[in-house]
Design brief:
By secondary structure, this protein is of the alpha/beta class. The chain is built from 9 helices and 13 strands. The protein has helices at 58-72, 88-93, 109-118, 138-143, 169-178, 195-211, 247-252, 262-268, 273-280, and strands at 3-10, 13-19, 21-27, 32-38, 42-47, 50-54, 78-83, 101-105, 131-134, 149-155, 179-188, 214-221, 229-236. The strands form 3 sheets. The chain has a 7-stranded mixed beta sheet, sandwiched between helices. Strands 3-4-5-6 form a 4-stranded antiparallel beta sheet, with helices on one face. It starts with a strand and ends with a helix.
């Protein structure tokens, strides 16, 4: 008998992955957490039935949300990561020796514990001495922060359930206040392809544009996310993601990535016409 995990992308579209076995199923006070093992994508994590990451393609998401701002900002010392309980963003950040401190704010402690046990590929650097984990609501945490961080990475779930507060005007305004005068914020920006996702994408973009003087959107191809076409937001007080990209400085680090390159960095900001139009509608 075959077992399949299916995620509904629209009322007429779903993604199905054949599953060898279920490694974990549990419920925290916030959400249902499941870990499956599959022949094609390896282990994968779902929250409330929605795909969060797979071992096979997680590197794309985590490299693109981390290395894009790190190749632009000349001196990141203090970082705030909101969400990211799977540890993938932390893994990428800890590759930079100049980063002195990382605050990770995750609402659900069980997600972290499950990922440490079943997804060590992503959770492998959560015990780095520079990382402080805070189990609380990201919106509440950031309200009390002012002029603290060089970089904020918002690795949130979709804009409903536990992640809903991270897609509000108040939240982005608080991020602006929490950043230093040359700080950068990067967030996952949803997919532009299906109508319902595109609306969430437009809403997030409108709020970010209203909160930051520099705001751009870039893209990556992530096979297991709805439509495979995924967007990220780059918002900054000072630095432009292309004009201030220092290719030589980043490449001199010798960091080996499987998706990110400084050439790809430039190309990622050149969006398809329909996406440009969709974003211009709300700017």
């Amino acid at each position: 008998m075959e077992f399949w995990f299916s995620e509904i992308h629209t009322p007429n579209v779903k993604l199905s992955i054949r599953v060898d076995r279920q490694l974990y199923s549990g419920k925290s006070e916030f959400q249902r957490i499941d870990v499956f093992e599959s022949p094609e994508f390896g282990r994968f994590l779902t929250l409330d039935g929605y795909m969060m990451l797979t071992e096979k393609d997680e590197f794309i998401y985590h490299e693109m949300i981390t290395h894009v701002p790190m190749a632009v900002h000349p001196k990141v010392k203090d970082v705030l990561v909101i969400g990211a309980g799977d540890g993938g963003v932390i893994r990428e950040l800890t590759r930079y020796p100049e980063i002195e401190h990382i605050d990770m704010v995750e609402i659900d402690e069980l997600v972290v514990e499950v990922c440490k046990k079943y997804l060590p590929q992503t959770a492998c650097r959560l015990d780095d001495p520079r990382v402080a984990i805070h189990y609380e609501d990201g919106l509440k945490f950031i309200r009390s922060c002012q002029d603290c961080y060089d970089l904020i990475i918002v690795d949130s779930t979709d804009p409903f359930g536990p992640g809903e507060g991270l897609f509000t005007r108040e939240f982005y305004g608080s991020c602006f206040k929490a950043l230093r005068e040359d700080g950068i914020m990067v967030n996952q920006h949803e997919s532009p392809f299906y109508p319902e996702d595109a609306l969430a994408c437009q809403k997030a973009h409108k709020l970010v544009v209203e909160s930051f003087p520099i705001s751009r959107v870039y893209q990556a191809h992530i096979p297991t996310y709805p439509s495979g076409h995924w967007l990220f937001g780059f918002a900054s007080k000072k630095y432009h993601p292309l004009k201030d990209l220092d290719e030589t400085r980043w490449n001199m680090r010798g960091l080996k990535c499987r998706y990110y390159t400084t050439t790809l960095h430039k190309g990622a900001f050149y969006l398809p016409a329909y996406v440009e139009e969709m974003l211009e509608d709300v700017e």
